[in-house]
Amino acid sequence: MTAQHTNDPLHGITLETILNRLVDYYDWDELGQLININCFNDNPSVKSSLKFLRRTP
User: What residue ranges do the domains of the chain occupy?
Assistant: First the structure.
């Protein structure tokens, strides 16, 4: 059986990893200015942001 490879560059990267990289690069303040959602502006945390992002389509 051969393994199928996908052209998706985000394959295998979790939402938490993406969020942590964004926070490391931009910090919460700048991320909140770039993406105006409350989970980045009002008492931001990885846990609350993941909860919001997973529930929002």
Answer: 15-55
Q: What is the DSSP letter of 37?
A: -
Q: Classify domain 15-55 by CATH architecture.
A: Orthogonal Bundle (1.10)
Per the listing, tokens 């490879």 go with 5
Q: Please list, in sequence order, all residues whose beta carbon lies within 8 angstroms of the beta carbon of residue 25, skipping any fewer than 6 positions away.
A: none
Q: Which 3 state secondary structure label does DSSP give 5? A: coil
Tell me the one-letter amino acid at 41: N
Q: pLDDT per position in the chain (57 positions), as tens?
A: 456 667 888 889 999 999 999 999 999 999 999 999 999 999 999 999 999 999 998
**19 burial class (0-12, 13-18, 19+ CB within 10 angstroms)?**
middle
